[in-house]
UniProtKB/TrEMBL annotation:
Active site as annotated: H109, K111, D116, H295, K297, D302
Organism: Telluria aromaticivorans
The protein, known as: Cardiolipin synthase B
UniProt cross-references to PROSITE patterns, sorted A to Z: PLD (PS50035)
Main localisation: membrane
Record localization: Cell membrane
Length: 386
């Protein structure tokens, strides 16, 4: 298992939701000179998707080599096929990750863009309208989807580029020699330096050398926490190790607050609710975000550790999907991230232990049944979930 390796001298800018992310992304695409590597889980057929698609096409017309990788499950077969036809006409190189689940049920849930090996974007934001529900385009949200990404410049971009290039190659047909070369590249640790401003690490989850790297980053941070932990996730269903790490931090006197999205999938809400009694008994504060769709996968530990990425705190992201996060060790960035999460908490509804303790036995049983079903499915498809 690879440890988290940090690189110094990076500029990491937090981007909140599509309002900040898409203008920054399109500006970078329009300034691209020779190469774009682009990955997303969802590439929607809406106005936002068309704007990003057009920016990628403009880059090709300037002579830029553009490679786009979308996930087959996330983008869906027919939209992915139509997108491929449009990109082929424009000269964009295009691939779909794991079509028809030929390589099992793993999904590429990552959202990455690397431009000219100088600028990288990593986060949780898909290519779709902030006002449309992720899983049902026809449903309008009450407020813009709440999500985050980061814009990175500095030495870390080289590592992000190499990983994105490797993912592009893996999505196609690889011979034995190419696979061996990729494996050798994956064994190399990123370079380090002594400069400042921000130390950052790029952590991915895959099914080879990085099966638990993202969870390990969280566990290390939780194990060192001294004062506070703020964690926002759309879906909460991590394994036992993660839940114990949260409980141990709270028992040491650390103020632990979970901001959990609700209202998107009933079964997922029920699974999360099954954990509430134990979380609350351990002294963990639980807040449900109901203002709009919470899609952010972010956390802050103490005053200098923060993460932004695509990985939810559930079994799918931590044990099955292909994911990508950036971890930042920087007080200024952590303070900014903390402010955003605290605003999200203010928009949420705290879960009261007394009120939750008085729910009927039927609902309580349904929560337990949902968890047992979820656990069974995870144990069948995801090694390591418990």
């Amino acid at each position: 298992m690879r440890s988290v390796a940090f690189v110094d001298n990076n500029d990491v800018t937090l981007l909140e939701s599509g309002t900040a992310y898409f203008p920054a992304l399109i500006a970078a695409l329009d300034a691209a000179r020779y190469e774009v590597l682009f990955e997303t889980y969802i590439f929607a057929e809406d106005e936002t998707g068309h704007e990003v698609r057009d920016a990628l096409n403009r880059a090709v017309r300037r002579g830029v080599k553009v490679r786009v990788l979308v996930d087959w499950i996330g983008t869906e077969h027919r939209p992915a096929t139509r997108l491929g036809i449009a990109f082929a006409d424009a000269g964009v190189q295009y691939r779909v990750f794991n079509p028809w689940c030929k390589r099992g049920i793993a999904r590429s849930h990552r959202k990455i863009a690397v431009i000219d090996r100088e600028i990288a974007f990593v986060g949780g934001i898909n290519i779709n309208d902030d006002m449309r529900c992720d899983h049902a385009d026809h449903q309008r949200l009450a407020a813009p989807r709440w999500d985050f990404a980061v814009r990175v410049t500095g030495p870390l971009v080289a590592q992000i580029h190499d990983e994105a290039r490797g993912q592009w190659l893996r999505a196609g047909r690889l011979g034995l020699k190419q696979r061996l070369e990729l494996f050798k590249e994956s064994r190399k640790l990123p370079p380090t330096s002594c400069a400042y401003p921000a130390r950052a690490a790029f952590v991915v989850r895959d099914n080879l050398r990085n099966r638990s790297t993202i969870q390990r980053a969280y566990l290390q941070a939780l194990g060192r926490a001294k004062h506070s932990v703020l964690l926002a996730t759309p879906y909460f269903a991590p394994g036992r190790k993660f839940r114990k790490a949260l409980a141990h931090a709270a028992q040491r006197g650390v103020e632990v607050t979970l901001l959990i999205g609700v209202g998107e999938f009933g079964i997922q809400d029920a699974v999360a609710h099954s954990f509430y009694p134990k979380l609350l008994a351990d002294g963990i504060k639980v807040v449900e975000y109901r203002k709009t769709q919470l899609h952010a996968k972010v956390a802050v530990v103490d005053d200098d550790w923060a993460t932004v990425g695509s990985s939810n705190c559930d079994g799918l992201s931590l044990f099955l999907n292909q994911e990508a996060n950036v971890v930042v060790l920087d007080q200024k960035f952590a303070a900014t991230m903390r402010e955003h999460i605290e605003r999200g908490i203010a928009d949420g509804v705290p879960v009261c232990a007394d009120e939750f303790g008085h729910i009927g036995w039927c609902r309580r049983a349904s929560y337990g049944a949902a968890y047992l079903l979820y656990k069974l499915v995870m144990r069948i498809f995801a090694i390591g979930y418990a």
